[in-house]
Automatic annotation (TrEMBL):
<feature type="transmembrane region" description="Helical">
    <location>
        <begin position="48"/>
        <end position="68"/>
    </location>
</feature>
<protein>
    <submittedName>
        <fullName>Acyltransferase</fullName>
    </submittedName>
</protein>
<feature type="domain" description="Acyltransferase 3">
    <location>
        <begin position="43"/>
        <end position="366"/>
    </location>
</feature>
<feature type="transmembrane region" description="Helical">
    <location>
        <begin position="80"/>
        <end position="101"/>
    </location>
</feature>
<keyword id="KW-0808">Transferase</keyword>
<feature type="transmembrane region" description="Helical">
    <location>
        <begin position="288"/>
        <end position="308"/>
    </location>
</feature>
<keyword id="KW-1133">Transmembrane helix</keyword>
<feature type="transmembrane region" description="Helical">
    <location>
        <begin position="186"/>
        <end position="205"/>
    </location>
</feature>
<dbReference type="InterPro" id="IPR050879">
    <property type="entry name" value="Acyltransferase_3"/>
</dbReference>
<dbReference type="Pfam" id="PF01757">
    <property type="entry name" value="Acyl_transf_3"/>
</dbReference>
<dbReference type="GO" id="GO:0016746">
    <property type="term" value="F:acyltransferase activity"/>
</dbReference>
<keyword id="KW-0012">Acyltransferase</keyword>
<feature type="transmembrane region" description="Helical">
    <location>
        <begin position="212"/>
        <end position="228"/>
    </location>
</feature>
<feature type="transmembrane region" description="Helical">
    <location>
        <begin position="234"/>
        <end position="250"/>
    </location>
</feature>
<feature type="transmembrane region" description="Helical">
    <location>
        <begin position="262"/>
        <end position="282"/>
    </location>
</feature>
<feature type="transmembrane region" description="Helical">
    <location>
        <begin position="315"/>
        <end position="335"/>
    </location>
</feature>
<keyword id="KW-0472">Membrane</keyword>
């Protein structure tokens, strides 16, 4: 059966890797980008991202298949397919915790908080805004361009979508399902970004006890504020701790050196296999521990026998945000909407599987294009904004300071 056979995932991954490989050969701009970016300090994590984002796509493909046949939206019966979604998200949270906490430990009080804040906005929104617009236009198209809610209600819905919440738009039921509700994870990312300066004051900069108390109150307030509509779950937030632990792990030369051994590769793969086969939920103590063990080894530079090094995998890592954010909408268009227009029954295996094949290749193509023409220009625009702010700050310095210089 599709919902339990791991071969479906294997074939999908091979198709994604093949599509990325062909793109690298056919589009010089992609090859130049990878060559220009070179081997980053955390190249193994860059490769891991590609597997994770595509894993969420496979997870939602299986959920879509079950929904088409049963009308029920829920986790797949297979532990593997269930964890392919939840486990991938947990590891994404660990990547976020690791990268930004590592930067804090390295830069200390020299950390550029302005650049951090601006870069996060220009990382999340340039792609999200067109997707949000596509969702709203799709809803009105499906409803025959009828305005059911009032304009103030639509404005409120738009503002909530801007905060990555997913209220029904214009009374279209379960609007978030058009994109597989993927934006729920972005609320957790935003909370981490907002809480990071306060956490730094407690654990990195280490002020007095009054400062610690105020920062803890601030973190709790942010926790309530960001999760005001749908409360943030503490066991989901625990995933970030795995990444923070990895930031300290890699700073220990002996631990980092061991993590790059063949034995460590075996330990990491066994931990991942246990997490993905024994458990059906990622956000519990035992699976989170196994995933964290896997992650600290990868974060130390272990490429898992070279599986994280190929250029095709690195490209899948580069486009991972596009893949993650867009895959739900691609699935809805290709597997739910297109069969209706073509009078096909997607509940038939011989119809669903070819549609999934096309969706896989199309997703990699679209994600590659959106990375090159939306994400990358957006990140570059963020850097220009920081430079502009810095220039304005220099221009507004007091005259006495300018004379002193």
């Amino acid at each position: 059966m599709i919902e339990t056979s791991p071969f479906i995932a294997l074939i999908a991954y091979l198709l994604a890797i093949l599509t990325a490989t062909l793109l690298l050969r056919a589009v010089p701009k992609i090859a130049r980008h990878l060559q220009h970016s070179g081997e980053s300090r955390y190249a193994s994590i860059d490769g891991l991202r590609g597997y994770l984002a595509f894993g969420v796509f496979v997870h939602h493909s299986i959920i879509t298949w079950i929904f088409l046949r049963t009308g029920v939206i829920g986790f797949p019966p297979s532990n593997f397919y269930s964890m392919l979604g939840q486990g991938s998200v947990a590891l994404f949270f660990m990547i976020t915790g690791f990268l930004f906490w590592s930067r804090l430990l390295i830069q200390g009080r020299q950390h550029d908080w302005l650049a951090f804040g601006v870069s996060r906005v220009f990382r999340l929104y340039p792609l999200y805004l067109p997707l949000m617009l596509a969702v709203f236009l799709t809803v009105f198209y499906l409803q025959g361009w009828q305005l059911i809610d009032s304009v103030p209600q639509l404005i409120k819905q738009g503002l909530l979508w801007l905060t990555f919440d997913r209220p029904d738009v214009n009374q279209y039921p379960q609007t978030g399902m058009l994109i597989s509700n993927v934006t729920w994870t972005l609320a957790y990312e935003v909370f981490f970004y907002l809480a990071l300066p306060l956490a730094a004051l407690i654990f990195v900069y280490r002020g007095n006890w009054r400062q610690v108390v105020l920062c803890l109150i601030g973190i709790y307030t942010l926790y309530q504020l960001v999760g005001w509509e749908h409360s943030l779950k503490k066991h989901f937030l625990a995933s970030f701790l795995g990444g923070i632990a990895a930031a300290y792990w890699v700073r220990r030369p002996q631990l980092a050196a061991w993590s790059r051994t063949t034995l460590a590769s075996v330990v990491a793969l066994v931990a991942l296999a246990l997490a993905f086969t024994v458990f059906n939920r990622a956000f519990k103590t035992a699976p989170l521990f196994l995933l964290a063990l896997f992650f600290v080894i990868v974060a130390s530079g272990n490429t898992l026998f070279g599986t994280l090094k190929p250029r095709s995998i690195r490209w899948l890592g580069e486009i991972s945000y596009s893949t993650y954010l867009l895959h739900g909408f691609v699935l809805w268009l290709m597997v739910q909407r297109l069969p209706l227009l073509l009078h096909l029954d997607a509940r038939e295996t011989w119809i669903f599987l070819p549609l999934m094949v096309v969706s896989t290749c199309l997703l990699i193509l679209i994600s590659s294009a959106t990375f090159l023409y939306i994400e990358k220009p957006g990140m570059n625009a963020g850097k220009r904004v920081v430079q502009w702010i810095r220039q304005r700050q220099k221009g507004n310095k007091p005259l006495t300071e300018k004379v002193a210089r």
